[in-house]
Amino acid sequence: MSSMPGEISNSCVARKRAHLRMRYSGAMSTLLCLRACLVLPLVLMALGACSTQTELRMAAQQEQFAREAASQGDWERAMRSYAAAADNAELGHGDFAWQARLHHQAGRAASGACRSDAAEFHFRQAIALAKKSGQSSALSDKALESLQAGKPCTVLR
């Protein structure tokens, strides 16, 4: 076997150096992985908290837009804004009672816009969320019954 000039093949020193290189590189990859495993969840939690607050602020803002649209009789825009507010409240982990109220209002606006399919969806969502929150779903129940009875396009209570 030929070896490089100045190097003794299969020497104890060469084997020891190779062993140290392997052990060092293994330790470094473990440390990098360990650091990534510890830091990444903290970064993700911080980003999650920021996005949660952003979603809740957006939901409140969209609820205000929906109220303004409803006060002007623009039921289509009110329905879209209330639905978007409900979606953002859900993404931001807003309380179930608020989500139920937003869906109820979206159902009322959908009813005013003669969108019975959307109204039924939002009233059903409001009922389910009201039950989760422990609140009464009587208004949404009544509105859903009126809708299913075939009442003309009106803003249901």
Walk me through the structure:
The chain is an all-alpha fold. The protein has a domain at about 50-150: Serine Threonine Protein Phosphatase 5, Tetratricopeptide repeat, CATH 1.25.40. The protein is about 80% helix and about 0% strand. It contains 5 helices and no strands. The relative contact order is 0.09.
Overall mean pLDDT stands at 81
Residue fraction in strands = under 5%
User: What gap, in angstroms, lies between the N and C termini?
Assistant: 94 Å
Total strand count, please? 0
Specify the biggest β-sheet.
none
Proportion of residues in helical segments: over 70%
Can you identify the CATH class of the domain at 52-148?
A: Mainly Alpha
Low-confidence stretches: none
Which fold does the CATH topology of the domain at 52-148 refer to?
Serine Threonine Protein Phosphatase 5, Tetratricopeptide repeat
Helix-strand pattern? HHHHH
Taken from the alpha-carbon principal axes, the silhouette is elongated
Cα-atom radius of gyration: 31 Å
Structural class: mainly alpha
Main features:
single chain, 157 residues, mainly alpha, Serine Threonine Protein Phosphatase 5, Tetratricopeptide repeat, 5 helices, 78% helix
